[in-house]
Amino acid sequence: xxxxxxxxxxxxxxxxxxxxxxxxxxxxxxxxxxxxxxxxxxxxxxxxxxxxxxxxxxxxxxxxxxxxxxxxxxxxxxxxxxxxxxxxxxxxxxxxxxxxxxxxxxxxxxxxxxxxxxxxxxxxxxxxxxxxxxxxxxxxxxxxxxxxxxxxxxxxxxxxxxxxxxxxxxxxxxxxxxxxxxxxxxxxxxxxxxxxxxxxxxxxxxxxxxxxxxxxxxxxxxxxxxxxxxxxxxxxxxxxxxxxxxxxxxxxxxxxxxxxxxxxxxxxxxxxxxxxxxxxxxxxxxxxxxxxxxxxxxxxxxxxxxxxxxxxxxxxxxxxxxxxxxxxxxxxxxxxxxxxxxxxxxxxxxxxxxxxxxxxxxxxxxx
Length: 367
Fold this sequence. Notes:
By secondary structure, the protein is α+β, with helices and mostly antiparallel strands.
């Protein structure tokens, strides 16, 4: 599934050469306190939405679905997950799940108008998309307006939480539990926060909009790449004819030899694909309902009074969700409502930082 979303990456030598010809990006940094404008006049421009202004969600990908169907399914989640009237979004498609950031598009537009920036000529991104990712790790990152706890799985951001100040041991422990990260001590201390440099381009693979708009292409980078290709072509054509004939003959010989040597690798690849198909068939025997079906069950129990989900965590039959509203919530109502749903048991609810938010845990029975 990962190959459907991978982008073409230039050779390291070409990327290093082109990076010398392109200036660093210019960043508009938006936080709750205002907008910090870039200083330079050259370089690609990005509108960076501070992590404190973003809502983060982890959304599982549909099994054996095309890129277009995955993007369409993700779009259907925006209205359910977003608390904003107008929603800005950015997504990273990983191997098994998508990392989704949502923010208030109206607030971003007003902030851009206050500094005279045209969002139609800028690409809006969450702050995390322009910071170096990790492979499989848990870390605390210093952001422009606070600190972000991150849990990475195979290069994808699986869990994230933002604090305006350094988290204490209790807050860090709650984050580790919510992210299903194993730990040894009962109350581990939060690690020292790391401060990352800005990337020249976002590391994410974003296809939530159904394609890559023209404004996202770096014209300077494309022009520099074309120039390098033309220069190499000119040098190649200017070579001597005899040497060209010799190189062509040597290349034909090498291709034939390589084709013979690659035959075992091709057979191994075919066997690997057969094993992958068997593994995917076994995945279809999962004893638990899909997360989309579970979301539908939970959503059906929510009252129609602006109560909405703010967090979702699923781990092999253990479900933990957080609901919030603009008024106090009755924990007993949610416990009774969820226990009446087939397949849900051991429902427990507790306050999550105030009367207007509840953290609910329950056990999902196998099908």
